[in-house]
Amino acid sequence: MIDEVIGYTLFHLIVNVIGGTLRWIYGSVWRTILNKPKFTYKEYLWGPKKSKDYYDRHHLFNNGFVAIIFMIALGFLIDWIW
Length: 82
Known about the structure:
Layout: H1 2-33, H2 41-46, H3 57-81
Helix pairs in contact: 1-3
C-alpha cells in the first residue's frame, strides 16, 4: 500500500516537473518575443501567486498533459532514429 502511494506521488511529481519545465521554457521564449511580463518557474509548476483558487488543479493537469505528449513524441523520435 505505501509503495503504491510513494510510486504514485513520485510519478506525478516527475510528470509535473517535466511538463512545468517545458511550459516555462515555451512561455518564457514566447513572452520575451511579445514583450509581456513573464511568470516564474514556481508559478508554472504550482499555479499563479495571486490565484483565487487555493488548489489550482488545472496547472497540474496542463503540466501532466504536456509531459505525456512530450514523452510520446520522444518515444516516436527514439523509435524513428533506431
